[in-house]
Specification:
Blueprint: H1 2-16, E1 21-24, E2 35-39, E3 42-51, H2 58-61, E4 69-73, H3 74-83, E5 88-93, H4 97-108, H5 111-121, H6 126-150, E6 156-160, H7 161-170, E7 192-196, H8 197-200, E8 202-203, H9 204-214, H10 216-223
Parallel strand pairs: 3-5
Antiparallel strand pairs: 1-2, 2-3, 4-7, 5-6, 6-8
Helix pairs in contact: 3-7, 4-6, 5-6, 9-10
Length: about 240
């Protein structure tokens, strides 16, 4: 559902800048990128995320207010920097989405859809996950008008994988398990770097405006911006 909303954002972007197109990567088997913006020879990969669970102990564990805190899986961000260095995360923060969908979907599903979802819910595994994705995509497309009208439209916030990794290195306290002992504090088992929405991310609307005005290359340059600084380089 969040991905479908972002497709609408991409369609609006293309309408305002025709030379900027996008590719749907969700069925390619890649797990890092959902969509790729393409312009001339440049590519800007985008991974869509919904932050649906508030980190209630965020201020205590990572120093960020719960409503201002979003997690990025550290291993995925590192993999992206290595394989897709231009990758952006586009994150929608909606803590009511799961509850809304749980209330809405049973009334939308046909009998066959209900049976398929029940079967998928009973099993796990890589092939089951692929089947779940296919089912969700087709269901969202089929029932999109009803879903769209029932779900709150929240803005997308953007941060690059490269910036996420930079924050991970500079501020290890943002990552329980690295900057502090995690498990004794009942932090998530997945190692996440936690970002501040207000300080670390950029509204997608601002990114889209820059692309319309200056092209995809403007954002690629922003993601890969560098500066000189003194760093420790211990010999021993």
């Amino acid at each position: 559902m969040t991905e479908q909303r972002f497709i609408e954002e991409l369609d609006r972007l293309h309408a305002h800048r025709g030379q900027t197109n996008y590719r749907d990567d969700r069925e390619t088997g890649h797990t890092l990128s959902d969509f790729t913006l393409c312009e001339d020879e440049l590519e800007l990969q985008i991974n869509i995320k919904n932050a649906g669970t508030r980190f209630e102990r965020a201020i205590e564990l990572v120093g960020i207010a719960p409503d201002d805190c979003i997690p990025i899986p550290a291993y995925k961000a590192n993999a992206a920097v290595e394989h897709m260095p231009n990758l952006l995360y586009a994150i929608a923060v909606d803590y009511t989405l799961a509850e809304t969908l749980n209330r809405l979907l049973p009334g939308l599903f046909s009998r066959n859809e209900t049976i398929v979802w029940d079967v998928l819910s009973r099993f796990t595994g890589a092939k089951v996950r692929k089947a779940e994705d296919a089912f969700i995509w087709s269901t969202v497309n089929r029932h999109w008008p009803e879903i769209d009208s029932a779900v709150t439209s929240v803005p997308f916030h953007v941060v690059s994988a490269r910036k996420s990794v930079t924050i991970l290195a500079k501020e290890p306290k943002r990552t329980p398990g690295i900057g502090m002992r995690a498990w004794g504090n009942r932090a998530s088992a997945e190692v996440n770097v936690h970002l501040s929405i207000s300080e670390d991310t950029t509204p997608w609307s601002d990114v889209a405006e820059r692309i319309v005005s200056n092209g995809v290359g403007d954002i690629v340059e922003a993601v890969n911006r560098r500066r000189k600084e003194w760093v420790y380089d211990p010999e021993i």
